[in-house]
Amino acid sequence: MEQSLYYRDTTTGTTQEIMSRTDQNPTPIHLSLPPDHPASIQFSHWLAAFNTAGEQTLVAYHSGSIFPYSVASRDIGSLQHELRLARASEGFNVIEAESISSPSTLVVVLREKKRPQYVRVSISVDVSNPDYPVTKFEIHPINTPLKYIPKDDPRRAEFEKALAPLTAERRKMVVEGLKDVLREQYVYPGLVEKITSALDTSLENGEYDGFEDSEKFAQRLTSDLHSTAHDLHMSIAFREPHPPLDDNDDSKPKPRKLFEHFKIVNFQFGDVVLDTDCAPGKVIATLPINGFVPSTEEHAEDWKKIQAAIGNIVSSVADADALIIDLRNNGGGVPHTVVFIESYILDDAPLHLLDFVDQQGKTHNSFFTTPENNLPSGTQRFGGTKPLYILTSKNTISGGEDMAYNLQAFKRTSAIIGEGNETTAGQRILLLK
């Protein structure tokens, strides 16, 4: 199996291989943490609450100042994000304590209960407070650590090659490959030169010399892209590939059944609220959308069931007098689903909303709203005339920005309200090969 370093743009899902290596498989283990270590104590409390995947349990744990979401990384930076991860992973087991020397900090490796996937967590607590409140919490996916690949695994040599320390030559290859991808694909040529120049400067000044771990090098490159381009759609990932196809199967991977998987996270919708108190005689609906799951036959075998479920959720606000769409925790997703949902709140379908265009001006995808008679049977539209408000925040990214922009561009919204006057997470990059 092969392992590769990738450049990925999450707006379009485009992934470009920069450098190829080799890969993985896991063995479950469980580790108990010391009961008298402050950071371990607080981490264990969090993990116990997280592994229940229960909303009320997590709300109770995060109440007060024990663990404010503001100190956490994006994957658990809100109740919605945390629930999404808890339900998708079915919880975690502790595999290894990487750093436990300081009473106030802990770094551990966890393994999902559902899938053979790993994450690294670092937590810091305030030891001057007897409750040990969390002051910082980071959780990030990692590749399978080499130590968990059995010595007798016939692919062990491939894994060792894949996870070998980076040399100066290979670091330079990665940087040059990244620069080539940016020049070929990124929409703003002027900004490309700024980014590539910054990468060259960091390489020449020896800022990358200490990076022998591919995952940490990928994180540093991602940070450099963000600081130069201010576009959070771009990232570098060192990751394990999908399992190879059967030797006799030359076809593309077939779409899988995804309905039950997405049902666990309510198709990335939060709880709908129908408020009858703030405006007497009126119903004000709030529809939180935390992401956009795949909903076409290209991505899911049971796509019609997925669309029907999404349509039913959106239909639950159809009779409201006004609608608030809450995109404050929206992490993006599939653009087809963005447009599908907008079919319920924009008139004059099929309405041409956007195109994906490369640097040469060639259109690769065009997106149109769905006519009412082609929407799932029994679903109802909110329509294109009643008051509509959009909530955004710095956590609104990609597809969330797409939805907000479309509704603003077609003058469908009464207002777009940024939390604390914040901008959204990044530029709305639609033009990428």
Automatic annotation (TrEMBL):
This is Tail specific protease domain-containing protein. InterPro entries: ClpP/crotonase-like_dom_sf, Tail-specific_protease. One of its GO terms (biological process) is proteolysis. It comes from Scytalidium lignicola. One of its GO terms (molecular function) is serine-type peptidase activity. It comes from the Eukaryota. PANTHER family: INTERPHOTORECEPTOR RETINOID-BINDING PROTEIN (PTHR11261), RETINOL-BINDING PROTEIN 3 (PTHR11261:SF3). Residues 251-433 form the Tail specific protease domain.
